[in-house]
Amino acid sequence: MPLFSTKSQPDPTKGNSSWSLKNIVDRVKKKKNSDLDDLMIIGIDFGTTYSGAAWATVADVENDSVNIVTRWPKFGLLEGKAPTVLFYEDGATMWGYGVPREVEPIQWFKLLLLKDEDQGEEIRNHEYLVKARKMLADEQKSTTDAIADYLKLLWQHVLETIVKARGKNVVEALTFHVVITVPAIWKNYARDSMFKAAKEAGILAPRRAGATTLSFAPEPEAAALSSICERGEDINEGDVYVICDAGGGTVDLISYKVESTDPITLQEAVVGSGGLCGGIFIDQEFQRICKARLGRHWSSLSQTGILEIMKDEWEHGIKRHFRPEDTSKEFVVKIPAEAFKNAGASSMNDSSKKPIIKDGRIHFTSENIERTFNKSFSDIASLLDKQIQQAKKSKLSVKGIILVGGLGCSPYLQDFLEVKYKRQNIEVLQTDGMKPLSLGVSFATEFNDELHDDIDKYWDETEDSYQVSGIMDWYIKKVRQL
After folding, report:
1. Could you report the per-residue pLDDT of 302-340, keeping only the tens digit for each?
2. pLDDT one-digit tens code per residue, 366-394
3. Residue range 19-217 in CATH 3.30.420
4. Domain ranges of the chain
5. Is 421 exposed, middle or buried, given 0-12, 13-18 or 19+ CB atoms closer than 10 A?
6. Where does the record locate the signal sequence feature (predicted)?
7. Alpha carbons 131 and 309: distance in angstroms, whole number
8. Dmax over Cα atoms in the chain, in whole Å?
9. E-strand spans in 48-174?
10. Which neighbouring-strand residues pair with 56?
11. What's the pLDDT at 443?
């Protein structure tokens, strides 16, 4: 679940500052002893299949300009995230788009941070995780090592991006507050391992401007805050929302009740649940359909050729924008010429069955494409039904479903769920694309004898009250379970 969402936009270089950052700035202006003008907040969304980053200074937020990293090594297009994949060769570590297409990368290694007993059997025994365990063992790497290797390269790229935008001297004078997303269901030992990986990655390395601070943002809470705050006056105490974090591999759900609106305080209403029905399973179904239609020609495709179909034609094209509203529309997928090289030019045309192949292109119908989403969407709906039923057992009525994550940005998923839950008067919401979210920064706040130590308080004449400085003030708070 993203610290910020990366839904595809016409111009992926643009984004809006988050509600929480703007409110932090407003409050900081009232604190005469604040030094947040010299602070840069950097968010890292470390995902199972894709990862991204964003950054902003206080001045950026005031100007409605939060910066999304959209340029990646070895990739010529603007994109909000890079693949969470690694490949080791001859002492070198390749990551993201820099992993050659013809090799098999290590992927899904984030999920290995949880012990086997804390994972469901379906996830624990999935072929990707089994393969990732073996590949890491072959490299004599632990899961923490792999995450540290990935974060190190991601962090270096983020810093290079910031320096190019602001200049080395300016960046060196700023202190950093880094926020990394983590799944809400993670046990403390997994968070400890993430902290260790971040430290090994150099994120907390000493800097001239001062120590870098690091905090973790539970993914569903981050998404809930971003989405709920966008609704402004429509939010009321007692409202219940199901957060559906539909990512590349897993789909995780948890329900929250709005405990208060200033600040927005969320109370867990239904225990989190999840399953393996994310976007990658839609990809696998599309690949199965392509393979079945091409028959023997599929075996002539190299790994690079398959990736051209799956990444260029499908993932970066049809999948993102598909909606089955126009049944007459065709979706044309170009097949690399190597698939037909041993069969003659005539094999590039085949209208004997549907979808037809014409000039080396498969012409899919809307119905063909819709079929690839069916199983995943059905499983997501089943997970949502269980959350809604559990809420009803607690005498709570769900007001809305908030979709986040990569698959959560699918317009078809929103349409599908809107139709399903319309009769129950449950809204289906999506977060704005490319919107970063930082959940908290350190600054002065009013002294509370139940929360703060006497030694940290001081009298503020402007506020006419005792204050405490250097406190992490969270704009989203999670309290005890109902």
Report:
1. 989 998 999 889 988 899 889 998 788 899 999 999 999
2. 999 999 999 999 999 999 999 999 999 99
3. yes
4. 19-217, 279-372
5. buried
6. none
7. 23
8. 86
9. 50-57, 67-68, 82-83, 85-89, 92-95, 106-107
10. 41
11. 38
